[in-house]
Design goal:
The complex is a heterodimer. By secondary structure, chain A is mostly helical. Helices cover about 55% and strands about 5% of the residues of chain A. Chain A is built from 13 helices and 5 strands. In chain A, α2 crosses α4, α9 packs across α12 and α10 packs across α12. In chain B, α1 runs parallel beside α3. The longest helix of chain B has about 35 residues. Chain B starts with a strand and ends with a helix. The chains are: A mainly alpha, B mainly alpha. Chains A and B meet through β2, α2, α4, α7 and α8 of A and β1, α1, α2, α3 and α8 of B. β5 of chain A pairs antiparallel with β1 of chain B.
Chain lengths: ~260, ~325
């Protein structure tokens, strides 16, 4: 999801998929039940004073714990519960602004409808159909759930890079490719290289042919850049220049792979 | 012109790190005072990072660096453009109780009136149904002890020599609080379905109430009824109405296309009020649960009806005074 600031800068949020959110919910549900066994045991100590008071406190305590878990944690942890924290998800205002307490309350209250009729069917369908993957609670509270993958330095160590990359000597071509290829597509190509052994031969040839065809269509390539190399090798070369990696042997005397056009 | 990205990063990274540090500090304590110099610096660093992002996003850069800058700019944007009302983060129960809650309900008086009308229509329907067709009781009454003859129940309750709730009062109160709160908040949440679910629940609640009242009045048990229902009912029923008011506020935001604002803006505008009404409902039902368990279920000769009725009337008077007048001065102060 793209947000454009009043200053004219755009940035993107990666919306969490319903499956990831369900996984986070499972973690939270397990946490709630596990913690409740401890909390209820503590409350039942009131039974030493009065069994009636202990039973009453257990009934109220369970309701408060189940209802308050999401509200309190999302407020204290800035949009995260334990499950969301583990899966790197975060609830945010859909404009990218800080969450208000009332938004957290509303999205958690409307869980009562989202869980209907069973297993978050209403919420799940709403999230699958909506543009911003919002369940009804998110919709009413104007919130989104995003996946916050930390920016990591990509390690191309698992990929066999060519000692000679024809794109490396073509700064303008490399810069244009870097400009045209979106981060999502760059990561998709990287994944394809990482998982090449998992693909059967025909699928691998088709996949790399498609990727290479797309990359070639993004800019005009000098003939020498593309001459005599397979589609897969071409994709390797593109990934190398996009992610700015240089094998030590090739880096010596090579042109800077990372460049910004002004 | 092509420039070396490494040089660009080397030149800009100190500013990004400084911005990250400031944002981390704000995240640790978002309410810490910010001096004018710090605010200016934060704004400057945000704009600078934004310009850097625009540069790398418009032309070319490593995907992970672009992602890092995006996250940084997003955090700074939230910090700078996010509006927080003074004191809204920290709990201020007295401020909430003595101003926010009653003011909010008064602001939505029309929605509250609608809840009253729907409940009354339901009550009339339930009352007429029981008066015209006593057999309807079987279908309308939710609890078995309400399906019998009121006179028999009154005789049984008044002749009881021992406390039926002895050893179970707190448990019963807990059940009442959680059940009623769950139902009321559900009625509020159902407001999102264009208010239809809220209307159905309110009407159903009214039908039961009307049926019970008609049944006891027709059996000549008006005093018992008043002594039984008034102590907790004067809080419990308004609590349900307050929750349903929140549902209608939500419904109006969903339906109200006439004001020209997008749906998300309308929903955001009512979020604080809906949350306030939900919290108020829960709070009122805690009190109602205690009263129902510890007072309402005890009748003459244990507790005189007159005392119970007087208790209910005083509660109702206080409730009307609370919602009618508390916080008015503060509202005028804020407006001026």
């Amino acid at each position: 999801m793209r947000v454009r600031t009043p200053e004219g800068v755009s940035f993107t949020f990666h919306l969490a998929s319903p499956v990831t959110r369900l996984a986070a919910w499972f973690v939270d549900a397990l946490t709630i039940m596990a913690a409740w066994t401890a909390i209820s045991a503590a409350i039942l100590l009131l039974g030493l004073l009065s069994a009636d008071v202990a039973r009453g406190a257990v009934r109220i305590g369970f309701f408060v714990w189940v209802t308050g878990y999401g509200i309190v944690l999302e407020w204290l942890w800035n949009g995260q519960t334990l499950g969301k924290r583990m899966l790197r998800l975060r609830v945010m205002d859909e404009r990218g602004l800080p969450l208000r307490f009332s938004q957290i309350v509303i999205r958690n209250l409307l869980r009562a409808i989202d869980v209907l009729p069973v297993a978050y069917l209403v919420g799940g369908v709403a999230a699958l159909m909506g543009r911003k993957s919002q369940r009804l609670g998110d919709f009413a509270a104007a919130t989104i759930v995003v996946h916050e993958a930390p920016p990591v330095r990509v390690d191309l160590g698992g990929i066999v890079l060519a000692k000679y990359n024809s794109l490396r000597g073509q700064q303008h071509v490399a810069a244009r490719l870097r400009a045209q290829i979106s981060p999502a597509l760059a990561y998709a190509a990287l994944q394809a290289l990482w998982r090449r052994e998992e693909l059967d031969d025909a699928a691998r040839v088709t996949l790399f042919a498609e990727l290479a065809r797309h990359f070639r269509s993004l800019t005009t390539l000098p003939a020498e850049v593309d001459e005599g190399i397979s589609d897969e090798q071409f994709v390797r070369n593109v990934v190398e220049v996009v992610f700015g990696a240089r094998p030590e042997s090739a880096a010596v005397g090579g042109a800077p792979a990372a460049a910004v056009a002004r | 012109m092509i420039v070396d990205l490494a040089r660009f990063v080397a030149a800009e990274e100190p500013y990004w790190l400084r911005l990250e540090k400031m944002l981390d500090r704000r995240q640790r304590d978002a309410w810490a005072p910010l001096s004018l110099a710090e605010a200016k610096e934060l704004d400057y660093l945000y704009r600078r990072a934004g310009a850097d992002l625009a540069r790398v996003a418009s032309f070319s850069a490593e995907p992970e660096m672009r992602r890092r800058l995006e996250l940084l700019v997003a955090r700074a944007y939230a910090e700078i453009h996010g509006t927080r009302r003074v004191g809204s983060a920290r709990l201020r129960p007295w401020q909430w109780l003595s101003a926010t809650f009653p003011q909010t309900l008064r602001r939505h008086a029309r929605a509250l009136l609608l809840t009253v009308v729907i409940t009354l229509v339901g009550a009339i329907f339930g009352g007429v149904a029981v008066a015209v067709d006593p057999e309807a009781k079987e279908a309308l009454m939710p609890f078995s002890h309400l399906r019998g003859d009121p006179a028999d129940r009154v005789a049984e309750e008044e002749a009881a020599m021992k406390d039926r709730l002895a050893g179970h009062k707190a448990t019963f109160a807990g059940e009442l609080m959680t059940h009623n709160t769950r139902v009321s908040l559900f009625a509020l949440a159902l407001g999102f379905a264009w208010g239809a679910g809220t209307i159905v629940l309110l009407f159903y609640n009214g039908v039961i109430l009307g049926a019970v009242i008609a049944d006891y009045l027709l059996a000549g048990q008006g005093v018992f009824l008043a002594g039984w229902l008034l102590p907790h009912g004067v809080i419990e029923i308004p609590a349900i109405l307050v929750g349903a008011t929140g549902g209608f506020v939500l419904a109006r935001a969903v339906i109200g296309r006439d004001d020209g604002r997008p749906l998300a803006v309308r929903l955001r505008a009512v979020a604080d009020d809906v949350a306030t009404l939900a919290a108020g409902t829960a709070l009122m039902l805690v009190w109602a649960g205690v009263v129902e368990s510890y007072l309402s279920q005890y009748h003459e000769p244990a507790i005189p009806y007159a005392l119970k009725i007087a208790f209910g009337v005083v509660e109702l008077g206080l409730l009307v005074a609370y919602f009618g007048w508390v916080g008015r001065g503060k509202a005028k102060e804020a407006a001026s």
